[in-house]
Amino acid sequence: MLLDFTTLPAFMLASAVVVLTPGVDAFLLLRTSLRQGIGAGLRALAGIHTASILQVTLVICGLGTLITNNPAVLATLKWAGAAYLIYLAVMIVRGLWLTRKETGDGLESGSTTDRPYLQGLLSNLTNPKMLLFSLAFLPQFVGSAAAPTLQLILLGTVFLVLAAIWEVTIVLAAARIADRLRRPKIARSLDMVSAAAFLTISVGLVAG
After folding, report:
1. Which residue, among 45, 43, 37, 31, has the nearest Cα to 176 in the 3D structure?
2. Which of 54, 61, 117, 163 maximizes the CB count within 10 A of its CB?
3. Collapsed DSSP state (helix, strand, coil) of residue 69
4. Distance between CA atoms of 91 and 134, rounded to whole angstroms?
5. Residue 115 carries which DSSP code?
């Protein structure tokens, strides 16, 4: 068979587990949508998936293996990703400090998502874990397909669609409850959780 569809049920189940596991994308989408609404959340999502499509394409074209087999390139990606997450965390903390000092506004001030598409793009593009995951995960479900490249395209598309469905749900849910979270104390708590998450993930990047 040109494509092996028998592997799809197991692939979709495994993909769902991966997609539902919280990561930097989920925290970035949640915070962006809470602070700036659906439009900004969707722009961040578009940036995330632009990077994801590029990474999956690299894997399908075989370039992903060359990148991940080059220790210098991989280390550079890891450190760049960690540095960017630390930058996001610092900007959140800085926004909290400025808000407390100047305005006392819990949700509108000190946002780090003035360019949500770019932030989504950079947060995913500088994270080599997606590339490594694609290299390790997608080939396991090629099965007996006569056209492995087409099978990888199918698997990559299915994974990205599942991820998009979940992440759109995050954006819509966060935007829907944003009005209820405009209390300064709640907003500050969410910011502190986001900053802590970005710092923790950055440590995981360089330690992993």
Report:
1. 37
2. 163
3. coil
4. 30
5. S
